[in-house]
C-alpha cells in the first residue's frame, strides 16, 4: 500500500493538491481544491485542511469543518471535500484521510461526522458507504447527507 501520512495544506504543497487528477466521469462530482481553500478564508478557525502523502508525494486532499455552533447540524463536524488522485484511488488514501478527520473530530468531542455528496454512478457514494457512512437525509438540492458514528 505504501506509507501514508498527513501534512497541513501549505504554500509548499498547494500546487500539488490543486493538480490531483480524476478518473473519467468524476469531474462532475468535485470542485477544484481552490474552492475549499477560498471557503476557509470565511472562517479559518473552523477549517481543517490536510494533504495526504503516499510515499512522500501528494496523493490526496481533505478539507474538514469543525463548528459546534453551526445552525446546520450537517456542517458541525464534516468532510467538506475529499480528493484522491486517480492513480492513488483504491490504495487506501481516501480511507486514511477520512479516518484522520474522524480521529480529529473525536478529539474535539464530536460523536459523529457527516459528509454530503451528489448521487450518481461515478460519484463517491460507494466509497463513503464502504468506509461506514450511512445515509441520514438529503439537502434541499437532492444531495445525500451521510453520517459516520465515532
UniProtKB/TrEMBL annotation:
Keyword annotations from UniProtKB, A to Z: Transferase
TM regions (residue ranges): none
Gene3D superfamilies: 3.40.630.30
Molecular function as annotated in GO: acyltransferase activity, transferring groups other than amino-acyl groups
The UniProt record lists the keyword Translocase: no
Residue stretches making up the N-acetyltransferase domain: 4-150
Keyword Transit peptide found: no
One Pfam family here: Acetyltransf_1
Record's protein name: GNAT family N-acetyltransferase
Organism: Cryobacterium algoritolerans
Amino acid at each position: 500500500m505504501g506509507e501514508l501520512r498527513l501534512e497541513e495544506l501549505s504554500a509548499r504543497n498547494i500546487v500539488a493538491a490543486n493538480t490531483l487528477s480524476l478518473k473519467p466521469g468524476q469531474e462532475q462530482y468535485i470542485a477544484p481544491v481552490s474552492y475549499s481553500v477560498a471557503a476557509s478564508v470565511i472562517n479559518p478557525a473552523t477549517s481543517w485542511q490536510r494533504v495526504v502523502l503516499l510515499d512522500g508525494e501528494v496523493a490526496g486532499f481533505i478539507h474538514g469543518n469543525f463548528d459546534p455552533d453551526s445552525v446546520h447540524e450537517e456542517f458541525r463536524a464534516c468532510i467538506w471535500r475529499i480528493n484522491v488522485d486517480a492513480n492513488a484511488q483504491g490504495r487506501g488514501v481516501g480511507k486514511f484521510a477520512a479516518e484522520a478527520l474522524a480521529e480529529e473530530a473525536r478529539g474535539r468531542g464530536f460523536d459523529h461526522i457527516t459528509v454530503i455528496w451528489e448521487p450518481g454512478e461515478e460519484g463517491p457514494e460507494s466509497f463513503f458507504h464502504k468506509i461506514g457512512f450511512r445515509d441520514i437525509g438529503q439537502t434541499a438540492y437532492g444531495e445525500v447527507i451521510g453520517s459516520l458514528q465515532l
